[in-house]
């Protein structure tokens, strides 16, 4: 077993982790980043990214993350494949254990483990992910202008996605598994008043149709047992996200969904020297640019912490 001593350990990659690495390394801090089980985060399953500043012609999500990684390496960040499998924050010494057998002693830790979208877990969904199947209307809605799309879910997130898409697309089929919505009353009223949104109660997507892109869905009605085929170009899954924060649950304060709680206007957690950034603590915006911004904040907070301790 190997022991490593670093100023800053960044757990997870993606826009938050890589931005934190760029700032920490440029500040002259010895910085180690573990990529995690999805190197580059959710952007690696995103095709065209057109809403991130600095890329006037857009860029592929995986290519963008390669650029971020190269920039972090340029300033001296040590980047490793693999995961941090457990942590010990029980004393002032912040200790982490990697899946490759290393013990890392860090003066500060920046968590950027992100969140994973909940999926329908059907084969066609995984095959067409990034080819018309998405979990983010704000990210990908632009590509479906004047088309027909489906949104799956009955909560506030699904309602927000459907309302957002209704400003861009021709029609939104809102597929709800139950006979009621979980969304707030005000959101339900907005949905029901929107002529572009067609609600399908007691329904689930049985299959997403298409070979190289989405061409339609087979929708199953739980009550009538009927299957209805609908032609459309996009499917937005809006049944929630799971923050990737399980290994920190014994030490860090979290909300009831597992998102890490940070101090207002800060990335500070309840443990001194531990900072949380990106989608691991942001359940509202969940954008690449906001994740990058919080990564910057995390590095600046870590730098100040190290300077004062």
Helix-strand blueprint:
Elements: E1 2-11, H1 14-26, E2 31-34, E3 48-49, E4 59-60, H2 61-74, E5 78-80, E6 84-88, E7 94-98, E8 102-111, E9 115-117, H3 123-127, E10 133-134, H4 137-140, E11 148-152, H5 156-166, E12 171-175, H6 185-193, E13 197-200, E14 203-209, E15 216-221, E16 227-231, E17 234-237, E18 241-243, E19 274-276, H7 288-307
Parallel strand pairs: 1-2, 1-8, 2-5, 8-19, 10-17, 11-12, 11-17, 12-13
Antiparallel strand pairs: 3-4, 6-7, 7-8, 9-18, 14-15, 15-16
Per CATH, the class of the largest domain reads Alpha Beta
| CATH structural architecture of the largest domain | 3-Layer(bba) Sandwich
Number of helices: 7
Proportion of strand residues? 25-35%
Q: What's the CATH topology name of the largest domain?
A: FAD/NAD(P)-binding domain
Which structural class matches the secondary elements?
alpha/beta
Radius of gyration: 21 Å
Mean pLDDT: 94
Low-confidence stretches: none
Could you give the order of the helices and strands?
EHEEEHEEEEEHEHEHEHEEEEEEEH
């Amino acid at each position: 077993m190997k022991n490593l001593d670093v100023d800053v350990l960044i757990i997870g990659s993606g826009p938050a982790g890589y931005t934190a690495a760029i700032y920490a390394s440029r500040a002259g801090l010895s910085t180690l980043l573990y990529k995690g089980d999805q190197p580059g985060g959710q952007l690696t399953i995103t095709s065209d990214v057109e809403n991130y500043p600095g890329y006037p012609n857009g860029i592929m999500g995986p290519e963008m993350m390669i650029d971020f990684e190269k920039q972090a390496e340029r300033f001296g960040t040590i980047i490793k494949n693999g995961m941090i499998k457990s942590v010990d924050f029980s004393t002032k010494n912040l200790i982490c254990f990697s899946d490759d057998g290393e013990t890392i002693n860090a003066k500060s830790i920046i968590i950027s483990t992100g969140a994973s979208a909940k999926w329908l877990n059907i084969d066609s969904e995984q095959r067409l992910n990034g080819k018309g199947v998405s979990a983010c209307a704000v990210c990908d809605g632009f590509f479906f202008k004047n088309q027909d799309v489906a949104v799956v879910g009955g909560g506030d997130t699904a309602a927000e996605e459907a309302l957002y898409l209704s400003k861009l697309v021709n029609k939104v089929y809102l597929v709800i598994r139950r006979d009621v919505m979980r969304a707030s009353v005000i959101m339900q009223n907005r949905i029901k008043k929107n002529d572009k949104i067609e609600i399908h109660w007691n329904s689930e997507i049985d299959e997403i149709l298409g070979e190289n892109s989405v061409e339609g869905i087979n929708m199953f009605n739980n009550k009538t047992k009927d299957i209805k085929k609908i032609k459309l170009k996009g499917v937005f899954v809006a049944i929630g996200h799971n923050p990737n924060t399980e290994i920190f649950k014994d030490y860090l304060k979290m909300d009831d969904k597992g998102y890490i709680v940070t101090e207002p206007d800060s990335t500070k957690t309840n443990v001194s020297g531990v900072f949380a950034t990106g989608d691991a603590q942001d359940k509202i915006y969940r954008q690449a640019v906001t994740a990058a911004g919080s990564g910057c904040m995390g590095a600046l907070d870590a730098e100040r912490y190290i300077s004062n301790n």
